[in-house]
Amino acid sequence: MSHDVLLLIYKYKHxxxxxxxxxxxxxxxxxxxxFNTQTRFDTTYVKTKQGVIKIVEIILDLLGFICIQSxxxxxxxxxxYFNVTAHLxxxxxxxxxxxxMFHLIEKYHNIKWLHIEMxxxxxxxxxxxxxxTIVVAFGTATYSAAGFFGYLAMxxxxxxxxxxxxxxxxxxxxxxxxxxxxxxHVTTP
Length: 189
Known about the structure:
By secondary structure, the protein is α+β, with helices and mostly antiparallel strands. It has five helices and four strands, in the order βββαααααβ.
């Protein structure tokens, strides 16, 4: 068995221990997840791809809301529904942005944040599809502009829901770091 490889994989929560024996060499590796549970303000999140997406979502939510509010028909049921959707997306994105910037996602890492974000973004995507369609169908210029911003927001929320799904599937962390260490020991027969 000196040329054969025996591989034993043992998983326990966030620690993976991998042992392989090949040509009298023993190799052990482990992956530890490190969370800094201190609350701190950090603006580096807004420079990441996910941070930029959240900021653009917030801007699109506000632009759609402003377009509906500046219309003479702002109290129409279509405009009210669009504004409710825009506010839901706005508050969802602002709260998550602040949670990431203050590292509260990392502090409360036991909560399934990626699942919450994926479901929330999926719901807002569906609501924006309906809201944008009904305001564009109304036909006024301001409603059409709001619908345009709503469709753009819908695409971004849908993209974010997809990326969160991919992150869940790959076992990524919402916030924090994974430290991988490897040790090799040579044994003699």
